[in-house]
Structures are given as structure tokens and as C-alpha cells.
TrEMBL record:
Classification lineage: Eukaryota, Metazoa, Ecdysozoa, Arthropoda, Hexapoda
Keyword Transmembrane: yes
TM spans (from-to): 6-28
Homology family: Belongs to the THEM6 family.
Pfam families listed in its UniProt record: 4HBT_2
Protein name: Protein THEM6
Keywords carried by this UniProt record: Membrane, Transmembrane, Transmembrane helix
Length: 258
């Protein structure tokens, strides 16, 4: 009996130590998120919108115990992003082609508090990509009426492989009919009065190509799948264009020592 007490006490101390050194529940939830996305949830087209559920717990609230801490929104995006990566096979495709992906920039706008013990959902989708980066939009929604509590845009930098090549392969995996269906959701990306043939501003192209280096060499001749991915690419939203400009200006200031 005494030996069992020592074993139980040792296990308790080990758990406390793990929680002290590591945010254990974060890693456990991340593992669960990967397993569910990989083996339980259905596969999604790369241009579909994925959804994950969340709950504001007591360890998520601000010091005033009134609403979810602002920093927690970005942490919740980790789970939404992993779910999207796994269900669309985006991450596995990047790794198989010899590339790597990391977050290069993010912006967030808060509209209304998420209260303690309030449920929410996060909708994630791709809104644009260039040769080096993938731009994702995440929305925190209230399930009852789909009110948008918060909206975030994240830039995922891809190195050692052109993003157009990755998207071409992912788009080629899905039949054209399914692709057209999923692309119907991208109509909301276009501002009122802007058609799908709106050209992308040159400044956005330059900004997207200059950030963070690691420019992958373009192939000598575009393949049919690459041409198809360009055709399927959504138009560049004007607010995203401005954000790309801001990031490029910030990079120039930092390189010049400002």
C-alpha cells in the first residue's frame, strides 16, 4: 500500500513538473487535432473552407476575467491551421516536394469579446497565394448566428519549393467539377464591382516576391497543371494588397536600420 502511494505521488509530481515546464494540454490537444483531421474528418479540397470548434475556458480569459485573452486567439489559430493542413494535405504535399512552411506575418482585428465558457467556431480558407507565400483568412464565429467576433489574416511562407507548384499538384488531385463547386465560395473575396479578371497590382507582385528571400527558380516552361492553378487562383483582395505593401515597407525599414 505504501509503495502504491509513492507511485501515485511520483506520477502526480511528474504531471505537475510537465505542466510547469511545458504547456502539456496544448500539446495533447494538438495531437488530438492532428489525429482527428488525419483519420476521422473528411478530406477537403484545397480551396474549401474548414471549420474547427472552440470553447473559451478559465485558462483562456484575460486578467479581468471578462473575456478571452487577445493572445489566445493566435493560439487557437494553431489548431485551425493544423486542421486545414491535414485535411487538405497541404503540409504533406509541401514536405514531399522538399519544401517547408512557417508563419511569416499575421494581422488580426477584434470586433466583439468572446466571453468565458462561450463556444465559437473558426473558419479557415485560402484567399490568395503567390510564388513564395500562402495567405489564409481565419474567422472566429458565434455558432448561433454566425456573427464574426474576430478576423485574422496570416501569411505562410513556403521555402525551397514554388507555391504555384504546390497548388498545381493539389488542384490537380480534385476533379474539375468539384473544384468549380469549391471555388464558388471565393466570390466573396472580390469587392463589389470587381470582376474575376481584375489584374493584380504590380506593387503587390513586387512585395510578394521580395519578402524574406528564398526565391525559388521558376521552370523554363509552364506545365499544364501550373497553368490550371493560375487560372483557379482567386483575385487579390484590395485589403490584402495594402497589407502586403505594409509588410514590404516594414522589411525595407528594418534592412536600412530604421
Amino acid at each position: 500500500m505504501e509503495q502504491l502511494c509513492y507511485i501515485a505521488l511520483s506520477c502526480l509530481l511528474a504531471i505537475v513538473l510537465l505542466y510547469g515546464l511545458l504547456e502539456l494540454h496544448y500539446f495533447l490537444r494538438m495531437c488530438l487535432c492532428v489525429l482527428l483531421a488525419r483519420f476521422i474528418k473528411r478530406r477537403c479540397h484545397i480551396l474549401e473552407t474548414t471549420t474547427v470548434n472552440g470553447l473559451c475556458l478559465s485558462n483562456d480569459v484575460d486578467t479581468l476575467l471578462y473575456h478571452m485573452n487577445n493572445a489566445r486567439y493566435f493560439r487557437e489559430l494553431d489548431f485551425a491551421r493544423v486542421d486545414f493542413y491535414e485535411r487538405t494535405q497541404l503540409y504533406s504535399t509541401i514536405r514531399r516536394l522538399g519544401g517547408s512552411v512557417f508563419q511569416g506575418a499575421a494581422t488580426i482585428r477584434y470586433r466583439r469579446f468572446i466571453r468565458p465558457f462561450q463556444r465559437f467556431t473558426i473558419e479557415s480558407r485560402i484567399i490568395y497565394w503567390d510564388e513564395q507565400s500562402l495567405f489564409m483568412e481565419h474567422r472566429f464565429l458565434r455558432p448561433s448566428d454566425q456573427f464574426v467576433h474576430c478576423i485574422a489574416i496570416c501569411r505562410q511562407r513556403v521555402i525551397n519549393v514554388p507555391m504555384d507548384t504546390v497548388m498545381a499538384e493539389l488542384l490537380a488531385k480534385t476533379p474539375l467539377q468539384a473544384s468549380r463547386h469549391t471555388l464558388s465560395s471565393t466570390a466573396s473575396l472580390q469587392p463589389v464591382g470587381m470582376g474575376s479578371a481584375t489584374p493584380m497590382p504590380q506593387v503587390a507582385l513586387e512585395a510578394g516576391q521580395a519578402e524574406n528571400g528564398h526565391v525559388a527558380a521558376a521552370p523554363a516552361a509552364a506545365t499544364a497543371t501550373t497553368a490550371y492553378s493560375i487560372k483557379m487562383k482567386p483575385p487579390l483582395p484590395p485589403e490584402l494588397c495594402k497589407w502586403i505593401e505594409y509588410n514590404e515597407m516594414s522589411s525595407k525599414n528594418l534592412r536600412s536600420g530604421c
